[in-house]
Amino acid sequence: MIAPEYWIWLQTALGAGRRVEELLAYFGDAKSMFDAGRTEWLLSGCVTARAADALARTSLRQSEEIVKTCSHEGWRVITWDSPSYPGRLAQIPCPPLVLYVWGDPAAMDQPFAVSMVGTRSVSRYGARVADELSFRLAQAGAVVVSGGAMGVDSICHLGALRAGGQTVAVLGCGLGADYLRENAAMRERISRQGAVVTEFPPYEKPTRRSFPIRNRIIAGLGLGTVVVEAGIRSGSLITAGAALEQGRDVFAVPGNITDAEFAGANALIRDGAKAVFDVRDILDAYGDLVDEAAKAGAARYDPALPDETRAQLERGQRRQSGKKTPAEKKKRTVSETKREEKTEETPTRTRKTLPDGVSANAANVYARLSGDAKSPDELQDETGLDTGALLAALTELELFGLAEAIPGRGYVLGA
Q1: 10 Cβ partners below 8 Å, 6+ apart?
Q2: Residue 297 pLDDT
Q3: Closest CA to 102 of 27, 180, 173, 24
Q4: 116 by DSSP, 3-state: which?
Q5: Per-residue pLDDT tens for 311-325?
Q6: H helices within 259-303, ranges in order?
Q7: Among 344, 353, 356, 347, which Cα is nearest to 412's?
Q8: pLDDT tens digits, residue range 117-146?
């Protein structure tokens, strides 16, 4: 294993997302290439004059400063020749030479990992599906990989976290970039229950070009990619395309054929992607990696039960003998209902001081909560947040114990 500075030098000079297979085949490693010098670079036939100029201009001292910064911040530098480099990522076309990791690098290299992507402007339907699928996949032992953005990405990360599973967020910027402050608490939580990963240097800002570049890594870390909700021009289709190029599975959640927000996902299914009607459609593709007990637990999600809330599903949809069905509950008398209400213990709910790191959206929602349950629709009207942002904020509050979902009623202050 050579010093990481040489790999950083090569990736910095060429830029993220550049093909390096031919260079590695000729020179062997980054240090050998550094030592070879400009003349040999040009004689190799692998390097253009323009690239040779960039390599010559890039200082090794700059790479050394990056290593120092990462060490100071507690970020890991994983290079192409490192034992910690993810095996699946090494197999893709144009693999990144350097990964900057906040958290546990092993989370990137687990046997069972599924990538999940979708639109930032997620619908209520798409948000629920993303939440349920990510939660159930994590329950079944899958590492959920996504892009750390708002909308579907955030919901998938948070679903995995709530299930107690691991998740990996792949960023299109440096770990220290001032990007998506509202997701800062989520990224910190992911760093403790998975990893936040990027190939961009510590403080590099995101650009329009950087997100398509990072999408190949999202696809590369998973055995397959699930597109939850995506329009025909969605960046999620770039990730799906990368998965196909890498020889990985592609799944898509079907949606309303008249809704433009689902046109991309529906087109994938038309072109051969596997339709996802239930989490078992994903789990069955990886049966050898999912034990039967985990698969049974994940199968508790039933999309045919639209009246069952996320909270009920999280509690395992306990159906003990003697528990009344919804139809039976409708037949209860007023006196029966009052007796149940009197015997039910109501926990004390008081407003707490918000801890450091709570996002602005979560604080906005928390200010609207009380001891009386409010439905997501009511909270959306009061906060002005879109569906994806609201669900992400509610999940963040649940993670902090600041909110609780009451089955069939809505959300209240955490007890």
Answers
A1: 20, 23, 30, 33, 34, 55, 97
A2: 56
A3: 173
A4: strand
A5: 333 333 333 334 443
A6: 263-270, 280-283, 292-298
A7: 347
A8: 999 988 889 999 999 999 999 999 999 999
**Scanning the structure block, which residue is given the tokens 């994903």?**
282
Which pLDDT value is given to residue 371? 87
Give the separation between CA 235 and CA 213, rounded to whole angstroms: 11
Q: From CA 186, how far away is CA 199, in angstroms rounded?
A: 20
Measured between alpha carbons, how far is 136 from 113 in angstroms, rounded to an integer? 13
> Nearest CA to 127 among 401, 408, 404, 394?
394
pLDDT higher at 392 or 194:
194
Say if residues 197 and 108 touch (Cβ distance below 8 Å): yes
- The structure tokens 């339709």 sit at 275
pLDDT score recorded for residue 344: 40
Between residues 121 and 107, the one the model is more confident about? 107
Residue at token pair 């990224």: 187
Task: Compute, in degrees rounded to 10, the torsion defined by CA atoms 403, 406, 409, 412.
Answer: -20
Please compute the mean of the pLDDT values over residues 51-79 and round it to a whole number.
96
pLDDT, mean of residues 324-341? 42
Give the DSSP H/E element, type plus range, for residue 391: helix 387-399
Give the integer Cα–Cα distance in Å for 382 and 361.
12
CA 244 to chain centre: 19
* Burial (CB count within 10 angstroms: exposed 0-12, middle 13-18, buried 19+), residue 62: middle
pLDDT at residue 177 is higher than 70:
yes
Instruction: Specify the residue for token string 């530098």.
Output: 77
Helices (H), 141-284: 152-162, 184-192, 210-221, 236-245, 263-270, 280-283
> What's the mean pLDDT when you consider all of the chain?
85
